[in-house]
Specification:
BirA Bifunctional Protein, domain 2; 2 domains; alpha+beta; 5-stranded antiparallel sheet; single chain; 38% strand; 25% helix; 7-stranded mixed sheet; globular
């Protein structure tokens, strides 16, 4: 991975979307301060003195939706933390959100550009988890784990993702009915089941946080 560090950007993902033609495969844009970070459903990701970065992958078909949160979990576990993954790719610590992933694709006539953005709290935030670590050291660990995970086969990735999941076997409501999350598809959907039917549901169809039954 080749890290390109900026003192400040509005959003590392937005920057790469606007300038992807300038960069090479596996280049990584790092912002020491991110002023307008965003997550899924255009949620705001507040970031001050946190780890915020985006990788560019060109014509890479790896399962980034599983690899990205697992790389964060493996890196954190290595330094003594016990993170979990909340589907589809948020990382939680002690029941609070610590890290988020935003994956976006740009398709042209000749290439597919995949942008994998990751934000991890390394400074205090009310109602969120954070880790008191050197953010550049954490980035190096995540990069190391990411490269290793890209060599996993589908079965290994799927098994690891299930192991770190904190939503597997949880009950949710979806379109007025009650279901249990029984598995995850390789393509990223949750597989939900009740006594009448079994469905695959994508992250664009449901806000898991508001649908979980506790």
């Amino acid at each position: 991975m080749n890290n390109i560090i900026f003192n400040e950007l509005e959003s590392t993902n937005t920057y790469l979307k606007n300038h992807y033609k300038k960069y090479k495969d596996r280049d990584c844009i790092v912002a020491l301060n991110q002023t307008m970070g965003r997550g899924r459903f255009d949620r705001v990701w507040e970031s001050q003195r946190d780890l915020t970065f985006s990788w560019l992958f060109i014509n890479n078909k790896a399962l980034h939706h599983m690899i990205a949160p697992l790389a964060v979990c493996y890196a954190l576990e290595e330094i003594g933390y016990a993170p979990m993954i909340k589907w589809p790719n948020d990382v939680y610590l002690n029941g609070k959100k610590l890290s988020g992933v935003l994956i976006e694709n740009i398709c042209t006539k000749d290439n597919t550009y995949t942008i994998v953005g990751i934000g991890c709290n390394t400074s205090y935030k009310h109602d969120y988890a954070y880790v008191d670590v050197d953010r550049m050291e954490l980035l190096e660990r995540i990069e190391e784990k990411y490269i290793s995970l890209m060599n996993y086969d589908l079965e290994q990735l799927h098994k690891s993702y299930r192991l770190y999941s904190n939503t597997l076997n949880k009950e949710i409501t979806f379109k007025g009915d009650r279901y249990k999350i029984v598995d995850y598809a390789y393509s990223g959907e949750i597989i939900i089941k009740n006594e009448r039917t079994c469905l695959k549901v994508s992250a664009n169809e449901i806000d898991i946080k508001s649908c979980l039954i506790f």
